Amino acid sequence: MKFNDCYPEASVEIFGRDSVFAEGFLKIEEYQRETVKLKYKSFRLRIIGQNLTLSDIRANAVVVTGKILSLDYTD
């Protein structure tokens, strides 16, 4: 689901230290209070934090909220 045509297909936006907006992923691979893993077509995104929750879940888009400690990308 595209919110705006100027965004690329796979998009990750960080808002402060308490929320991450991710879209264009294929599936949620893991969801725990301290780790969320999203699988994209060409990479995986891992969000590490405390008290993580998924909100505003839409088709291939989600907002992850909580205390965000780090994000990392792997192939």
Layout of helices and strands, plus pairs?
Layout: E1 11-15, E2 19-23, E3 27-31, E4 35-39, E5 44-58, E6 61-74
Antiparallel strand pairs: 1-2, 2-6, 3-4, 4-5, 5-6
Main β-sheet description: 6 strands, antiparallel
Poorly predicted runs are: none
Q: Kindly estimate the percentage of residues that lie in beta strands according to DSSP.
A: over 45%
Question: What is the end-to-end distance?
Answer: 23 Å
How would the global form be characterised?
globular
**What number is the mean pLDDT?**
90
Counting H and I runs of at least 4 residues, what is the number of helices?
0
Short overview:
This protein has strands at residues 11-15, 19-23, 27-31, 35-39, 44-58, 61-74. The chain is mainly beta and 75 residues long.
Describe the structure.
The radius of gyration is 11 Å and the shape is globular. A six-stranded antiparallel sheet has the order 1-2-6-5-4-3, with no helix packed on it. It is mostly beta strands. Helix content is 0%, strand content 65%. It has strands at residues 11-15, 19-23, 27-31, 35-39, 44-58, 61-74. It starts with 10 loop residues before the first strand and ends with a strand.
List its salient traits.
0% helix; 75 residues; mainly beta; 6 strands
